[in-house]
Amino acid sequence: MTQPRVEIGSQPEVRVRAPGKVNLGLRVGAREPDGYHPLVTVFQAVSVYEDVVATPGDGLTLSVSGPQAHLVPTDETNLALRAARALAEFAGIDDGVHLHIEKSVPVAGGMAGGSADAAAALLACDAFWGAGLSRDQLHELAAGLGSDVPFGLVGHTAIGSGRGDVLTPALSRGEYHWVFAVRDVGLSTARVYAEFDALAGAGSGAFGPDSDLELLQALRAGDATALGRALRNDLQPAALELAPELAETLAAADDVGALGVLVSGSGPTVAALARSRAHAQVIGAALTAAGVADTVLTAVGPVPGARVIASPSP
Ligand SMILES: C[C@@](CO)(OP(=O)(O)O)[C@H](O)COP(=O)(O)OP(=O)(O)OC[C@H]1O[C@@H](n2ccc(N)nc2=O)[C@H](O)[C@@H]1O
Ligand SMILES: Nc1ncnc2c1ncn2[C@@H]1O[C@H](COP(=O)(O)OP(=O)(O)O)[C@@H](O)[C@H]1O
Fold it and tell me: What is the model's pTM?
């Protein structure tokens, strides 16, 4: 598990890359006494990445770059810093580290960028400090940081139950091409779940372990058309209630022949499944032309979870 540091001049640097995600299926049960909703979800990791770079520092410090860096908290609430602190406490380490996040995943966009940062920071600190934690130990720390963080570690395709943190790998064949329509204003996950409650009955009514059989079958077969038909998000009506303009984005992607289109997680990012890389470009151009997205990203999935990457940035 321990990874070598890459020396740049005299500076040791560990760079870890972690993916964003889309929930291909997201089935939500009724709120439980602890205030959380049980889920059955099928996660796919996609090629929109966060890089977290660990370098020497006094104490635990953080910086962030990227188009939406100004939206990311850099205080103690930042998930990457919380991850570093959790790992240091667990492993009894009192060395410092500076973490720099190069952010590409939309902030508060329903693509789990903060969770990717936390997963990447766990792996980066483990390698940087030579802590040598096992996968199980990292997973345990990840689950303590947030429900989507364990998936940020494992990536690929997985079924999440519990709060999404209990993961079972899912078979998936082939590559899927995505277009993500990003909005500059995020949607708070807490608000979307609260709206889900307010719209009582908006859920699928089919909450349970067998909810996504068609979806899982499509993935096993590598059948993008069938996958497009099976995409499902129980939070979508709530996200649309809070951000009605998303209906136009969904319709615009549908109009240009997307195989399927849905709100990603708690939104407001809209994910459209394309037939091919070229078709993804066509959908992206149409969404931009229609003015229904502030930024359009294209990506493929599934991709691996957080990993130390060999070559540091130039
Ligand atoms: C919706 C999902 C789907 O993967 O991700 P995003 O699309 O936001 O990335 C997840 O369930 C995001 O889970 P998580 O990352 O734990 O959400 P948090 O921001 O910690 O939760 C904020 C608040 O949302 C509500 N919440 C969250 C998760 C859950 N299963 N039930 C809930 O009711 C709770 O009120 C909680 O206090
Ligand atoms: N490293 C981080 N990157 C982004 N957001 C973070 C981070 N740490 C904490 N947050 C907080 O978490 C909120 C949502 O996180 P994010 O993962 O971007 O979206 P989502 O939960 O919709 O997938 C942000 O609005 C921000 O306040």
Answer: 0.94
